[in-house]
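Entry 14: structure prediction run for Alpha/beta hydrolase. Input pasted below.
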Amino acid sequence: MCAATAGITAVPAQAAPGQRGKLISSAPLTNAAALPSAAKNRFVTYVSEGARGQRIRVTGTVAVPKGTPPRGGWPVLSWAHGTTGTADACAPSADTANGPAHDYLSITEKYLDKWVARGFAVVQTDYEGLGTPGGHPYMNGASEANAVTDIVRAARRADHRIGRDWFVAGHSQGGQATLYTAASRSRDIRLRGAVAIAPGSQMSQAAEYVKAQHPGAETALPFLFVLLNGAKAADPSFVPEDLLTPRAGAAAKAGRTNACLLQLKQLSANLPLDKVFRADADLTRFENYYDSQEALGLNLKVPTLVAQGTADREVSPAATQNLVKDLCSRYGSIAYRAFDGADHRASIDASFEASLKFVQDLRAGRTPPTTC
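Run finished. Output tokens:
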């Protein structure tokens, strides 16, 4: 699988030897990223493939259930996390009780603990460039899907009780990553199904949305800085500060060094929308790149559940419905579930029981309902 990257030039990253999924290191994990219901939590480093096709090192976590695995080994849930930021401190594996991304990760850690308590080996990638050398190419579908897939391979090398059957689930940024993963194929491990919660879309519109000061643009502003930094990570010749005022440029730079999404929200809280972009800012390159990373047009290969909260202000329910309609035009085994009153983050817990049933049905050989 390869996503187009219009307007972005090839950039070498730190080389990582070996095949994708090679386990480089494994060590005990004891911080907030460790799942309480697991028998064992590990911090792993493994080989994956970056946004431009180069071998890279990626970090992540592996949680193994208690008890005796079923025949064939523990089934796997590979979790694709939502937006934390682009600074190394935003990597989920580095989370602590007072960490800069704990406001979000505390939610997903409790959610993932439910999966490991129900007999799933839970693996979570940090993605390319989060906690490892190089920038994080935020919302680059190919890079995300590679990292999400390769950690399953690495986890099986870290613990041989982990089986070949796996499922992918993700939220927001991770929802988009989930759809890219569902469009890929692997022979050595068997992807059985996918759960995309509030999948990110319409990324290219964020800049114009803020620039035009549309209603709700204040909500989009912190994500804009993450998007700009993601484009820079894919191509260092793209300089966000060339588009931004000095004050906004300082926020973008902080997002590359030590500020996660919560801190970016704080930094931009008093930034007037008419003071974000320079008067001569040309958004074409930014927009072309993120247009190329939309999940629209993907050919999914496994049954997929798309979950969406009706009160979500960060990912529009209408945009998700449009995405599902497009995906259904090429693959019929997609179910769409709306959760009344759930906002962006609340959709994670609101969709858990439906997601668990969806996965259990697939494991039992039952055909989940479709809305296509």
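Notes: The chain has eleven helices and nine strands. Will compare against the previous run tomorrow.
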